[in-house]
Amino acid sequence: MKFTWGDSDKRARELNEEIASHLQMAARDREARGESSAQASEAAGREMGNSGLIQEVTHDQWAWTWLEDLLQDLRYGARTLRKNPGFTMVAVLTLALGIGANSAIFSLVNGVLLSPLPYAQPERLVGATQYYPKGPLVVMREQSHTMQLVGMSDNKEFNLTGSGDPVRLIGNSVSADFFSMLGAQPAMGRTFRNGEDQPDKDRLVILSGALWEHRFQADPNIVGRWITLEGVDREVVGVMPADFRFPSPKTELWVPLHLDPRNTGDYWGDSYMALIGRLRPGANLEQARAELKTMRPLVLAAYAWRMPDNSFVNTTIVSLEEAIVGDARGKLLILLGAVSLLLLIACANVANLLLARATTREKEVAVRVALGASRWRILRQLITESVLLSLLGGALGLGVAVYGLVILKATLPADTPRLADVALNGQVLGFTALLAILTGVIFGLVPALGALKVDMTAALKSGGQRSATGGNHRASKMLVVGEVAVSMILVIAAGLLVKSLWILSGTSPGFRSEHVVTARITPNELFCAVPGRCLAFYDELLNRTRALPGVRDVAAVNGLPLGGGAEIFPGAIEAQPTPAGAHVPMFWEKIVTPGYLRILNIPVLRGRAFTEADAAPGAQPVVIVSKTTAEHFWPGRDGVGEHFRPAWEKEWRTVVGVVGDVREFSITQNAASWIDGVIYTPYGPHAIRGSGAAVPPAEMTLVIETAGEQAQFAGELKNTVASLNHDVPVSQISPLRSWVAEAMAEPRSTSALFAVFAALALLLGAVGIYGVISYSVAQRTREIGIRMALGARRQEVLLLVVGQGAKLALAGVAIGIAGGLLLTRLMSGLLYGVHASDPLTYGVVAVLLMFVALVACFLPARRAMRVDPMVALRYE
Amino acid sequence: MKPRYQNRIELLQGTLDLLVLQTLRWGAQHGYGIALAIRANSGDILQVDTGSLYPALHRLERQKLIAAEWKVSENNQRVRVYRLSAAGKKKLASERSRWAQISQAIAGILGPAGEESEA
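Predict the joint structure of the above. Result:
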């Protein structure tokens, strides 16, 4: 292919002939003036000058030269790469790993952090950083001039009954103008209308596309049908398109918020939810933040009771994306940082390979310069070659990214925000291409500039390949030191995370998880509204379950530890009255049947556990507290016999026992920092509920002590529940161990990713050292031969070579430690039980890196040791 | 080296193009002939550099100001002969008037200085 005006080859031939005829005519004229034929043609030639160059320049008048040059460079580059398959393969593979890993992580960052939310004018969408109850929402919705505010509950569960087997669906309660605020259109029917979140108008539901398709067989007449959710009949008014997945891909339905100020506890105290909204035209984020501050006193004044003065003081307004992504941002950015360090190592490696090769190409470059090639042209040629290399790497890297992303999505915890939005799309392809080109220029530039510094005459004069290469070699040593340092940082980071995980899996969550199977039993709230009905139901269920084969014992709890869900309630301590206006202590409610503590092996430290008698209707109300709670409120005292009550009650309850601490909140925390204690009450009429409701909770989780590890009675359990009430779904029948494992999913996935990065970094670092030392041994073959001829022993040669590598590695390790101390501080939020500058981790990693470096040096050193002095001296 | 060469061409470009077009006004001519004609007509003052002439000829050809064809010379040699195209004639006319303006302007600047030195 030629990019010239017309036929380039023909033109070149004709141009040649034209110039030749010019020369002939000039020579003939000279002969006519009396010069000899030989003299004439020589003089004519001299007069003309460099005819090859004239042809080239003339030819350029016709060409789109840069394009032709580029094609020529590409052809030449491809030929060079083909001629060195080993080099090409190593370089392309290295780059593919580096670029591929970056593309995979970038798709993640792009999907979660960068891509705008798929709604109208997403940059105008905002969210509050804390949750509010319904009352404040209504106050602020009416007051705000800067935002259209809507409320959105967290995922809630709904029993769908009356159409096939009872199932548990996930949905959100939302303000009536939730959909119109987002600008989302339904696929069928309509969305909620203003005012439909008021009592008596709110018996409506909107289905997700997926639920409509799978549960209702894509019924085209679904709109207008009534379905029963949590015992409440609701009319289906609309179906959303399948790609509407807000607030989460799990959401299957939306119901209107039930805004009933008469229900004071629910309206002001309970059912906290996210506040999101859209900036009104002309308003900006700053104004919205300022307005939120000015509205705070209004909100507190509207409360039915006095709130602590500092309530909601730390809330602010952020972009909706930021509100959704939250903590995941830091982790993703750290991952992106780590993976770009990996790419740096890959670049250094390839630059090193190129440097080593540049030395052997010195002569080629010198000859081309001598023949009139401009240095710029040669630089372009060398850069083209390295970009070609990195584009190949990028193409292969795309394959790495495709598989990497599949693994990544499987590794990351399923509740990572916006994970469903992550995909390899055009932006990622563009990023990869850009990265590949940039990479090629960066790692190509160093060796190319080095090549141009070559002293032409020296390179041409010296017959062999051994010309002065000090400059290049110094550059390649520096690259290796840098590479080792960066690897060191990555391995330290991985080491810290792995140690965290190890400490984490070694710490007891405060309960036993072996031989315990759990199952969620979820009757409707309405079912328990009838006094005594739920008590009888669970009483009978526990008795029947206990009789199943393989079951030793069974108990029930309102929510499993490790964030299994529980409510918070304000309480009072007799020994420590709360001053007026001060923050009321908040407690974590645990509602359990008597066997719970024993089955989970939660030790009773002082006092006693609950008995059947505590749960009986006429019994004296008693509570049990956790160890930390007792120490916090009654320091230096026993705890048993002290008095406690929920904030809304008058009578004090007696503490009858103190039990061991349990990781209630998460695998790393017993309770969230804003919670002051954990209170156990027996399942029965005296259960303390966060909502203040006088009836015990409907949803409970069974903890079943089994003889074996596996749950073989799942079917029988379901039958048992169905025989009691066929509208009660049973779900999540699984060993408690897998629940514990799930709680570790997040730290485990982060550690795993870093471990992979570290392993790659170590591998690439080792290859880098190996490459440089091998090359240096090859360069010094003659010197080594002379040393050996002069009597140096083989061990000395070995030491010489290994020592050279060790010096580089040591420098790298030292810089790496300094860099690690600087950078790992950024990830202290991901660590548990280990400090970011943990000396043991640093030490072990330093030793590991030195070891790997020495092994990488040893191979070329052995080759050096076996150099035959005679052969080495004759070489060249 | 190439870059330096190109600089030299560009320096001469405007003038050289004008000279070539002017020379071709008297009839079709090959490159060597053009070079000789310019030298002769300038009283041996202007030496046309071959390295500038041929790129200029081909550039003019690409701009369709001149046309080229192969002919056999009186010495029975194949030569590439250039002749002025219609567009080239127009171009020559406008370039000539431009040149006239420039030389007038320069003369205007230089003129008084000459008179001063005479005075």
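Confidence is low (pLDDT under 50) at residues 463-469 of chain A.
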